[in-house]
Write a structure and sequence with these properties.
By secondary structure, this protein is α+β, with helices and mostly antiparallel strands. 29% of the residues lie in helices and 29% in strands. The longest helix has 18 residues.
């Protein structure tokens, strides 16, 4: 009897359940590692270990003991590097751990961009105990606004934009709250020419980008301008801008020696259409971006992530892939008030466009103030026939989809 191949999945949160299910559908034995005792993935995986996904030695021991054939840190920044380190040790499919480390830490990432001739703002790294006067002295040539952020967080957690120095100490404390390595970064704010942050995911196979899933990010410019609350496709990029984005993405992938897998992107275009990389995450995007892109392209990116981690050529790579007709977007459910979850209310005029709702909360569950991507309450997926219909929703999302608190 042939032994089932095993895959080690790092993380069993609500957003990561789809990777566990995809692996099982592909016929793999699923081994899950997650230190949170209430993670839902433990009830779906074939075997569960209550260990931290960031503990390299623990992950290594589990992978060795279970004799896994692949490791996947699906939609997880903190687990991406441990997955790469352990896979390298065991000779399993992986991207270079050094490259994954560069992508996962904002200071080495900025240094890489600067040294390799990519567009890059002025930046300075420091620790939370660095004297304020020293920070100001080192950044005196910077032009406001500036951004203060942790170097090892994602989802815009701990990020503050400053228009002067008055709130610097507060911004440092906020960044420090979300920093594990205690290395913070201050950098010039990039003045956009293109109005949207370009988000979404790409997929790489054999060192070449085989799928470009760039989208425009929807943000609440008044209350949470740094946190995405949705993605929409198609984007408003013109042909030349799209060519710039695609070219620079492939340049980064080649320079870092990325071999395979889904990667999350955040890019700004300045007034001269130079592409500035905010992030290039070495993992699939959060907020169920892979699901949205799978819907739009008619493929299964979640299964493709599993296949790639196991060294198997993904199904869609050899097929022509085109976006389906219409406009696809997702909307992140959130609240700017704390309370108890009382459900969501969707206006009758847009119900016909909603084709999937994924709610993380049950009635009565605690709702926290939305100050980072981790405070999302769920995702609503919409498909519009026209760009005008989609834009109408984007301009009126607050009134068309409401979160009720008890």
């Amino acid at each position: 009897m042939t032994r089932m191949k095993k895959i080690l999945l790092l993380g069993g949160s609500a957003q990561q359940l789809i990777a566990i299910r995809a692996a099982k559908e592909l016929g793999y034995y699923t081994v899950l590692c997650d230190y949170l005792p209430d993670n839902p993935g433990q009830y779906e995986a074939d075997k569960f270990y209550g260990a931290s996904t960031t503990d390299v030695e623990a992950v290594y021991e589990i992978a060795q003991k279970e004799q896994v054939s692949g490791i996947l840190a699906y939609a997880s920044d903190p687990a991406a590097l441990p997955a790469a380190i352990v896979a390298e040790r065991l000779g399993l499919p992986t991207n270079p751990a050094k490259s994954v480390e560069i992508l996962g830490l904002k200071y080495p990432w900025r240094r890489f961009l600067h040294d390799n001739g990519f567009a890059c703002p002025k930046f300075f790294s420091f620790n939370p105990q660095t004297p304020i006067n020293e920070i100001k002295a080192k950044t005196q040539s910077f032009t406001f606004p500036i951004v203060v952020k942790p170097t090892d967080s994602s989802g815009s957690k701990g990020v503050t934009r400053l228009d002067n120095w008055s709130e610097l100490e507060k911004a440092i404390r906020w960044a420090d709250e979300y920093s594990r390595n205690k290395v913070l970064l201050v950098e010039e704010f990039i003045q956009r020419g293109y109005p949207y942050v370009i988000g979404g995911d790409i997929f790489v196979w054999d060192g070449k980008i085989v799928l470009y899933g760039e989208m425009d990010c929807l943000r609440d410019t008044l209350r949470s301008p740094l946190i995405p609350i949705g993605k929409k496709k198609p984007s408003d990029l013109n042909k030349k801008q799209k060519e710039v984005v695609h070219r620079e993405l492939q340049r980064v992938v080649t320079a870092l020696g990325i071999r395979f897998g889904e990667m999350n992107i955040e890019i700004l275009l300045d007034k001269d259409d130079n592409a500035h990389f905010l992030e290039l995450g070495p993992r699939a995007g959060g907020n169920m971006i892979p699901i949205q892109l799978s819907d739009a392209f008619g493929i299964d990116l979640v299964k493709a992530n599993v296949q790639a981690a196991m060294g198997v050529r993904p199904d869609f790579v050899d097929k022509p892939v085109e976006v389906h007709p219409g406009c696809y977007m997702h909307y992140v459910l959130h609240s700017y008030e704390a309370g108890a979850f009382g459900g969501i209310e969707i206006d009758e005029t847009i119900k016909k466009y909603v084709y999937r709702e994924v709610i993380y909360k049950k009635p009565g569950d605690r709702v926290e103030v939305f100050d980072g991507a981790g405070k999302a309450l769920g995702i609503v997926f919409l498909h519009f026939d026209t760009v005008d219909e989609m834009e109408h929703f984007c301009k009126n999302h607050d009134t068309l989809i409401k979160v009720n608190l008890q």
